[in-house]
Amino acid sequence: MEIYYLVLFLSAMLSTWWIFRHIHKIAILKNITDNPDARKLQKVPVPCLGGVAVFFGIIMALLIAGVEFEASKMFTIVCAFTLMLYIGTMDDILSLSPLFRLFMEVLILSLLIYGGSGYIDDFHGLWGIYSIPDWIAVPLTIFACVGIINAINLIDGVNGLCSGYCIMACIAFGVVAIWSGDQKSASFATIFTGALIPFFLHNVFGKKSKMFLGDGGSLLMGTIIAYFIISMLKSDSQLSFVANGNFGFIPFVLAVLAIPVFDTLRVMTSRMLRGTSPFSPDKTHLHHMLFRLHFSHIGTTLTEILSNMLIFVVWFACWHLGASVEVQLYAVVSLGFLATFGFYWYGMSLEKHQGRGWRILTRIGDRTHVGHTKWFGRCTRLLDRKY
Predict the structure, then answer these.
(1) What is the DSSP string of 77-128?
(2) How far does CA 383 lie from the centroid of its chain?
(3) How many other C-beta atoms can be found within 10 angstroms of the C-beta atom of residue 179?
(4) Which residues make Cβ contacts (< 8 Å) with residue 241, sequence separation at least 6?
(5) b/e map 226-262, b = 16+ CB within 10 Å
(6) CA dist 193 to 131, 189, 251, 259, 368, Å?
(7) What backbone phi and psi angles, to 5 degrees, belong to 237?
(8) Which residue, 180, 251, 324, 329, is the most exposed by fewest CB within 10 angstroms?
(9) Shortest CA distance to 237 belongs to which of 316, 144, 349, 122?
């Protein structure tokens, strides 16, 4: 079985690596780029078809995975992934209206739910709640998954952040899937991790070869994360047969998603309080605050991913020490609010007064600018040599 997962991983990674250069060339020739503006962080146009390259690697590896289990089990899921990539890529090229994109997200998630993937219909003992009726479960699933998809989409503003975060999330979900014997989810997690790694390297270290996921890629990855959540929180989840009594299904999911979910909640809440649309773009995300603290792209990415990993470690410690499901949830929520709401407001206060705390954090941020170092330059030259 280890060889099977290794083959899937390498197939996805090598396929994405091979196609990446060709997709990059197409994006430049057809001017499918993300252009700089007052809100965005890049200074030059960057190709934004990275999601198409990642999807190619996913499909090539899924062809191999289909040999191991029935392809019919993957059909609806792959259709949902394809449609979400298509809508996101259309948005990259044509700039779709937020309302139309939201409508399509709901429609595609409905396809995923009623096509056999299931829905969130079991709280697995949280607050004494287990199975919930379908008339609550279906809207809850769509609402939660739309929120997750857009949370992933909104962190795609920094080199390596969205792809690095999704690699971390896929590894976490993959480990749990292997533990529970869910071969389909474990295969998906292995494939997605492999397909994302070449993109992550080009996105972080590339200069001539740099490409963004684009809305196509970020919506695709959000849908993938949503699939994992549904497969874990549905009533017939394979994990429920192996997890012990205090395993917090919902705290685990929230720990994996903490930074994107709570930062999106903070941003959308602040927009509505200002009387603007929750979907209107601005520069109030956590990564914007880190940039104002002089953090580099790689420094910002590492800070947010490591913060999320710390929250996950705290959840794991709570579970391992026998804490109740409710205590696990309260710990994750408290840390999620502290790492997003608390840090952002603290940063705003420091920026306003420009005192000692501000100077300390900006000095730390300055140290994350490693683009001029020899090792970073070697990575860039290696990745850019055929571009």
Answers:
(1) HHHHHHHHHHHHHHHHHH---HHHHHHHHHHHHHHHIIIII----B-TTGGG
(2) 24
(3) 13
(4) 180
(5) bbbbbbbbbbebbbbeebeebbbbbbbbbbbbbbbbb
(6) 32, 6, 23, 19, 26
(7) -60, 135
(8) 324
(9) 122
Q: Is residue 188 a contact partner of residue 66, using CB atoms and an 8 Å limit? A: no
Q: Are 223 and 104 contacting, i.e. CB atoms less than 8 angstroms apart?
A: no
* Angle, vertex CA 120, rays to CA 148 and CA 127, nearest 5: 100
Picking from 126, 212, 211, 210, the residue whose alpha carbon sits closest to that of residue 379 is: 210
What's the longest Cα–Cα distance across the chain?
62
For residue 244, what are its two tokens? Answer: 């012990």
Residue 148, token pair as written in the block: 């997750």
| Dihedral of the alpha carbons of 174, 180, 182, 186, in degrees to the nearest 10 | 10
Per-residue pLDDT of the chain (387 residues), as tens digits, is 688 899 999 999 999 999 999 999 998 998 888 776 555 555 677 888 999 999 999 999 988 877 666 655 678 888 999 999 999 999 888 888 888 999 999 999 998 888 777 888 888 888 888 888 888 989 999 999 999 999 998 888 789 999 999 999 999 999 999 998 888 889 999 999 999 999 999 999 988 999 989 899 999 999 999 999 998 898 887 777 777 778 989 999 999 999 999 999 998 888 888 878 777 777 888 998 999 999 999 999 999 999 999 999 999 999 999 999 999 999 999 999 999 999 999 988 888 888 888 898 999 999 999 888 999 989 899 998 877
* Nearest-angstrom CA–CA distance, 384 and 379: 9
AA identity, residue 323? A
Closest CA to 65 of 54, 53, 75: 75
Q: Which amino acid is at 290?
A: L
Please give the backbone phi and psi of residue 73, each rounded to the nearest 5 degrees, phi first: -70, -20
Cβ-Cβ contacts under 8 Å for 15 (sequence gap 6 or more): 56, 57, 60, 61, 195
| Paired residues of 306 in beta bridges | none
Q: How far is CA 63 from CA 12, 86, 178, in A?
A: 10, 20, 20
